[in-house]
Design goal:
There is one protein chain. This protein is α+β, with helices and mostly antiparallel strands and 367 residues long. It has two domains: 178 residues, Ribosomal Protein S5, domain 2 (2-Layer Sandwich), CATH 3.30.230.10; 168 residues, GHMP kinase, C-terminal domain (Alpha-Beta Plaits), CATH 3.30.70. It contains nine helices and twelve strands. The strands form two sheets. Strands 1, 2, 3, 4, 5, 6, 7 and 12 form an eight-stranded mixed beta sheet that branches. Helix 5 crosses helix 6. It catalyses: alpha-D-galactose + ATP = alpha-D-galactose 1-phosphate + ADP + H(+).
Length: 367
């Protein structure tokens, strides 16, 4: 088969922030929002990439693909092809048309969705059979080594492995997974998402700095990763001690939330979401005023809990709310933002959706 349409979702992380690169636990869901790729094989050794959301067409020779050789959003596509070829998989030329509705710059992993859709398209159409965990590792390598973003493996795993109406409990050390029911409507609840529209400020450099802090702390404490600590160790410089305190507590919160979901005690996860945000604000220092104002406004308006989601420094806040309180919480956030002269946020409710898949509709060919 020479062509097809493939799509992969963005994600929301319910809880477990900045734990994945510390070999810890995460609990994301996939979103209904997807990146869709229409793909066709080419016989000339060229990767031709275009997007319905961007002008221009990129044409790249496969033999020229190398870290640093491609910039912008196309690097995420080219990086996946490069990583697959680096690992010996026979991926040839492709024409790829990208489309999608994952909000850009909102911390909902549009990049991982793009990588996952690319990986699924080029492997299936090339006759390369790889399991989803392997694809997650390869797409993470693309982002780490080709794009130069030192992310963990959560985003790619969520996009590739998630199930509808379930949260994905992922042990990022072993890649063991558990699909835990997460269907809020029968409980009269909703997951309200607030896209703060706050631009990501110094996200690449600051994200890398947090990762360095964690690795340095693990080195000083003599453990392979902060995952291996049961209690925060205070015998560290203050900044490193605070990073450790967040990671240890956040791992514990993930496991507690997972158990509450297993036992159908969904409302009880709310305070843990808010505790996570407080830790990310005070100990990990990755929030910005828009995120903090949104969380405070939501909790004051009666939300069961709220937290930033994603890497931080901008992006989205999620909140567990009674479904009858969605409008009141939305009004409260928008009023708080207006009071601070912040950009009006987008607010919407999210449901847990399926991971990457081949789309059902008939593809329109690309050349």
């Amino acid at each position: 088969m020479r062509d097809g349409v493939f799509e992969a979702p963005g994600r929301i992380n319910l809880i477990g922030e900045h734990t994945d690169y510390n070999d810890g636990f995460v609990l994301p869901i996939a979103l209904p929002h997807v990146v869709r790729i229409t793909a066709a094989r080419r016989d000339d050794g060229v990767l031709r990439v275009a997007s319905r959301q961007a002008q221009g067409v990129a044409e790249l020779r496969l033999v020229d693909l190398a870290p640093g050789a491609v910039t912008g959003w196309v690097a995420y596509v080219a990086g996946v092809v490069w990583a697959l070829r680096e690992e010996g998989h026979p991926i040839g030329g492709f024409g790829l048309m990208v489309d999608g509705n994952v909000p850009l710059g909102a911390g909902l992993s549009s990049s991982a969705a793009l990588e996952a859709a690319t990986a699924l398209a080029v492997t299936e159409l090339s006759g390369v059979s790889l399991d989803r965990r392997t694809l997650a590792r390869i797409t993470q390598r693309a982002e780490n080594d080709f794009v130069g973003m030192p992310c963990g493996i959560m985003d790619q795993s969520a996009s590739l492995l998630a199930r509808e109406r379930h949260a994905l409990l992922l042990d990022t050390r072993t890649m063991a997974t558990e699909h835990i029911p997460f269907d809020l409507a029968p409980a009269g609840l909703a997951l309200l998402v607030v896209d703060t529209k706050a631009p990501h400020r110094l996200v690449d450099g600051e994200y890398a700095a947090r990762r360095r802090d964690c690795h340095r702390a693990a080195e000083l404490l003599g453990v392979p990763a902060l995952r291996d600590l049961d209690e925060p160790d205070q015998d560290l410089p203050d900044r490193l001690a605070r990073r450790v305190r967040h990671v240890v507590a956040e791992n514990a919160r993930v496991l507690e939330v997972a158990e509450l979901l297993r036992t159908d005690r969904i409302r009880e996860i709310g305070p843990l979401l808010t505790d996570s945000h407080t830790s990310l604000r005070d100990d990990y220092e990755v929030t910005v005023p828009e995120l903090d104002v949104a969380v405070d406004a939501l909790v004051a308006a009666g939300a069961l809990g709220a937290r930033m989601t994603g890497g931080g420094f901008g992006g989205c806040v999620i909140s567990l709310v009674e479904d009858t309180a969605v409008e009141a919480c939305t009004r409260a956030v928008r009023a708080a933002f207006a009071d601070k002269n912040f950009t009006t946020p987008d607010c919407w409710t999210a449901t847990a959706s399926a991971g990457a898949r081949r789309a059902d509709h008939v593809p329109a060919g690309v050349d």
